[in-house]
From TrEMBL:
Pfam name, any one: CorA
Keyword terms of this UniProt record: Cell membrane, Ion transport, Magnesium, Membrane, Transmembrane, Transmembrane helix, Transport
Name used for this protein in its record: Magnesium transport protein CorA
Domain of life: Bacteria
SUPFAM superfamilies, alphabetized: CorA soluble domain-like, Magnesium transport protein CorA, transmembrane region
Residue spans crossing the bilayer: 312-331, 343-363
Family matches, as InterPro entries: CorA_cytoplasmic_dom, CorA_TM1_TM2, Mg/Co-transport_prot_CorA, MgTranspt_CorA/ZnTranspt_ZntB
Family: Belongs to the CorA metal ion transporter (MIT) (TC 1.A.35) family.
Key word Endoplasmic reticulum present: no
UniProt key word Ion transport: yes
Membrane topology value: Multi-pass membrane protein
Compartments, record wording: Cell membrane; Membrane
Amino acid sequence: MPSFRALPPSLLGANRTRPDEVEVDAKRIHVPVARATVDCAIYVEGARLPGKYTHAAALAKVHELEVEGQKAFVWIGLHEPDEFQMQAVAEVFGLHPLAVEDAVQAHQRPKVERYDDTLFLVLKTVIYVPHESVALAHEIVETGEIMVFVGRDFVVTVRHGDHTGLAGLRRHLESEHQQLALGPYAVMHAIADHVVDTYREVSELMEGDIDAIESETFSPLSQTDIEPIYMLKREVVELRRAVSPLTVALARFNTDYKDLLTKELLRYMRDVLDHQTQAADRIASYDEMLSSLVQAALAKVGMQQSTDMRKITAWAAMAAVPTMIAGIYGMNFENMPELQWEWGYPLALLGMASICGFLYRTFRRNHWL
């Protein structure tokens, strides 16, 4: 048999890994930025430069083109990046840590903030969830978020949600070079315009649901179910919270950020603000309409309950007559009138039927039955 020389215990111990060291090494494993990157492209004078680039290589290429006198910028799109991925992008593009934290955590209100020469715009996205009727729907509006970092030579978009894709918008912009030739802030305008247009589309679709609920509520022969109204009210409130704050954010472009945008882009942003104001006003009117509809539905439910109580009272009154007579003759006393009379029992039944018939006719004439 072959002989093996025993190794020293110290050498054996040096090759062993403790569990806590394995845990530390596992924490150092990070998912690369490419896993969260949807698209990364360089645009020169509005035209997309062929080739695939990482975020760092793309920005370096842009700087080379600028040295050569060409106007270029990079647009990188990220989908739900983690903290490490976002931090790696922030180090290359010089993004502020507070804005980076907001981009990772999401759940932000629509806003616009300036960090030196970089603008940070937060947009809430909405999508209409198709359904057969409001009564059968569990959700009508689904929300997401798009964060836009805009600098002198870059655009970084961070999306949260499955319906927030910008691939179609990117293809549309690439087919028309004129807008991309205006620079990174033109991309920001296009994204804001795209999101605001969805507000208008969703509000128009929700108007059909509100009209259906309103017709059902004021229908004289229908039983009002107030739960769908409350559900629709909740969805409108969620939509209003996503849309309304953006009005203030867009208005700041014409007051606080004039030095960053050209006059042409400022005109475009004012047009987006007009569309945003229209959508916000429409959604606010829906909120007020549903509040009035809730009050009307509660009043109708109260009337239905009052009608039901009158019917119950009328039937109880008719049932009380034979109950009273039967109760009296069920006491089994000897000296009671008509106990020994041959026609006493038929006469008692006839009397109960006559009184009940009179009460029924009276209640019907008074619309209690």
